[in-house]
Amino acid sequence: MIRMTGINKGYMLGEEKLPILKNINFTVEKGEYVAILGPSGSGKTTLMNIVGCMDEMDSGEYYLDGLAVHETPQDGLTEIRNKKIGFIFQNYQLIPTYNILQNIVMPLLARGMTYGEAEAACMNTIELLGLTNRISHKPGELSGGQKQRVSIARALVGRPSILLADEPTGALDQSSGKDVLRLFRELNDMGHTIVMITHDSQVAKSAGRIVRIVDGELYED
Amino acid sequence: MRGSMRISEIFRLVYLNLSQNKFKVILTSIGIVVGSATIMLVLAIGMGGRAEVAEQFKNLNAGAIDISYGGQGSFDMDSFMSGAMGNPFGGQGSSRGNSGRGNGSTGFPGGSAGGFSGGVPGNVGGFSGGTFPGGGSNGQQKSNPFGGRSSGDEVILTTADCEELELFVAGITDTTISYSSKASLEGGELESATSYTVAGVRSNYAGISNLKMTIGNFLTDEQDESKEKVCVLGMSVAREIFGSAYAAYDGSVYIDGRPYVVTGVLAEMGTVASGISPDTAVFVPYETGIKYVTGPSISPTVTVIAADVNSVDRVMADVETVLADSYEGVTFNISDAGTKMEAASASNETLTWLLVSMSVIVFIVGGIGIMNVLFLSVKERTNEIGILKAVGCSRKDILIEFLMEASCISFIGAVIGVLLALAVTPLVELFSVRVELTVSGALLSLLFGVVTGTLFGLQPAYRASRLIPVVALNQE
Ligand SMILES: Nc1ncnc2c1ncn2[C@@H]1O[C@H](COP(=O)(O)OP(=O)(O)OP(=O)(O)O)[C@@H](O)[C@H]1O
Ligand SMILES: [Mg+2]
Asked: What is the ipTM of this complex?
């Protein structure tokens, strides 16, 4: 499903390039539930953005479902994000002026569905995440846990090949965090492929496989 | 198949965004509001000017040529030389009141000759037709029935000049002579004597000036010849003195204390380009006016009607030649309606273009304003753009969304601008500027507003649509 070889990524720091990801090789099979564990600043988010086709890599090869992502132009990446990837952001990233339903249907509207079709198609997911009586609220009116569930719902409605979650429990209290992890378990049991980032080894344990990232280098457990 | 957002759904988002930021929409569109209102008013004022010119000239005969003597002592070397050398009877023109003072003071022989023969009552001075270019050697004699009152120091055009012009200038259908002056009127509902324009005209003046009657008849030749005290009132005058045209008809007014019978009232004619404004004038027979109102020292205007509008220039040249022969060294004001019309519409056109370019500048300023606001708004919404990109909205979708927002904002602004222009119109009219609102003007300013707003919205929208998702998401 995911095959990454020799991925490098750095940021310019003045004249010099500061390497963040160093020769990353990373593979995820269909149906897997993988946790990327690493301390703050180790490059987890940077890696996840590349996996999620939201950032450019400096070098390396990346195949997603057999597609050569590293050779795909921007417009193609947009389509890959829309069809194959469900991204759950560290800080939810909901559009504050849209209500919950409008936020959740966006990936489907981007595909060319009408609002009515999209609404019908995401009702199951909304129910699954217990958001049914919140759909006309604005994100600002929800708790962190609820926002995270909206973010997850939005990632799921497009039936992506892979679910990417950046610190899904990071901003949540213990019990909401546990709810999210339980949900991920269920989703994985339903057949979803999941890659989750965390700095918390307890959280990482709920995944089927753990890879560690330290200073931009990836180590399999 | 590549997914792309439906326009209807983009429009839904646009509506969502605009309806939640009404205040920002108004702020953004202020430049467009002002621009559209300006262009609408400018077009309306331009159209108003055009309509006014058209109206002023609608009663004017395009072939009409007005000849009047404006200044005195004007001396034209060429005409003097030709007169002195080509015309052995150099003084003949002076029998019609050549300016003895003007010429005489310069000490030229022609002038003194004029002064001399001008003093001979009834002396008509036969002249050789050969002195007229193209006139042929007809050696015609002519008589001047009014020759007796030509010894003033002003050039005074007379009926004889009309006859002469009719005789020697080809392609003239009609001529008339008229003058106007101020006189005090009493009678009717007037509480005190009031000053009005009194015009002395021939019976054919009505036809030449396209005057129409509301009631009664225009002045006749018989009334003129017997110097009857009758008058025809302009519509405004009739209303002011009698309340209505019907009340005025057959009534009497006192002009300088003498009673005149009102034999007719003109229809309302509106403003005119030049000459006597019929609505506000009192018309009396030519000779009656000279006898009772003005006395002999008048400065009449001779109006000549060219049969063919295209030959106006030639007729004017001939008129000049004929007059130069009668009045040596005198320059007359000769102007034709067509040229006046052209000059008026040309200056009106210039004004319109000036106003239009002014409003284009307003638009550019407004457009830069809208671009700034859109830049800010796009910057503010970079995170939103990042999210849209992350969930798979294409560059095109985002570009279209922001462009549609810009054009909707400008459309709203343009509509408000048009309404504003409508609201301001009565104010502009207070300054007696004629404003002619048109549907096409409104549509044009709407179009202008939308196009400007959209064009200026293009750049920020394009920039926003090209950001890569992480960059957009990470911008605060
Ligand atoms: N846009 C950027 N420009 C320059 N440096 C960056 C940029 N984004 C990230 N970095 C640097 O890259 C390194 C890794 O950042 P990243 O966000 O991947 O860490 P992380 O592992 O996700 O940390 P956290 O657990 O705190 O989220 C950091 O040192 C950070 O300063
Ligand atoms: Mg991070």
From this structure: 0.94
